[in-house]
Amino acid sequence: MKKLNELFDVAYGNKLDLNKMTLLSKANGGVNFVGRSSQNHGVSATVSPLGEMKPYEAGLITVALGGTKLLSSFVQEHPFYTAQNVAVLKPKLKMTFSEKLFICLSIRHNRFRYSAFGREANRTLRELLVPEKSEFPDWVVHGEVGTIDTKAASKNMAPTPALNPMHWKSFQLSALFELKKGKRLTKARMSQGNVPFVGAIDGNNGISGFVGQKPIHDANTITVNYNGSVAEAFYQPEAFWASDDVNVLYPKFKLTPEIAMFLITIIRQEKYRFNFGRKWHLERMAQSEIKLPVAPSGEPDWMFMATYIKTLPFSSQL
Questions:
Q1: d(CA 288, CA 290)
Q2: 233 and 268 Cβ atoms separated by less than 8 Å
Q3: CATH code for residues 2-146
Q4: What is the pLDDT of residues 108-153, one digit of tens each?
Q5: To 5 degrees, how large is the angle CA 171–CA 174–CA 175?
Q6: 33/196 Cα distance (integer angstroms)
Q7: Is the model's pTM score more than 0.70?
Q8: What is the distance between the terminal CA atoms of the chain, rounded to a whole angstrom?
Q9: CA-based angle 257:204:315, to the nearest 5?
């Protein structure tokens, strides 16, 4: 085993704030912005280049130093900037992509060391022990990570339309949805069954388990955490039970899975407004606004949103 700083040069990122950046689509030259998320390889958005500040090069590893998914680690395949509390690791010796992925997995397995609430890895990351190259299993050393024909996985083979948030319009969530609260269900009262139970987590589509109680919320809705992993949003295709840490958004328009995928991505961008002491409770959420593409009528451009999602890789799997 070796200390992490014996294998990598450890830097502590750009320490940028996403809310001070200008969003720009990848198609228009946007640069990946890596935050502390455990999803989408940690990429929270794509932003305009900063001119004199060059992005980090592709092929480096990012590590979340705080948050609910502490030590989430990813190999960044494109140039990127980072938020605060994100470390960047550059190998001192040449490593294959498979070997970097193994290091990411090894870093994540140190998460148990930070179980105390509020403990972060800023000062101790360099000291974490990970396997050195001579200890890597053969399936890592000789493994190859294949490429995926993502075009074949798109629902619509047309080019992805450009996003232009500068021309989007703000809409109050209560104008788009009827908002309802989840309901408390203790573990002692839970029975075994196959009804999805949506909790305030940031993965697995929000489903923390399955219960035998009857569903209390309808399918084809969106769940948003107001507590726990605040502002994590998920599309729910089946009827479900939601905990009291979750708000449920019932659409006042025709919601499709494609439109839902667009909306939950926008809703998640509101995370930076909330923290442990400031929850996104029902009343505050109802008054909150999100920016969306707008049709000539002044209403949200639902057709554009659906078309955009259908052109993305893997959209055929929705």
A1: 7
A2: yes
A3: 3.90.220.20
A4: 998 888 765 557 788 889 999 999 888 888 888 777 766 656 556 7
A5: 55
A6: 32
A7: no
A8: 42
A9: 35
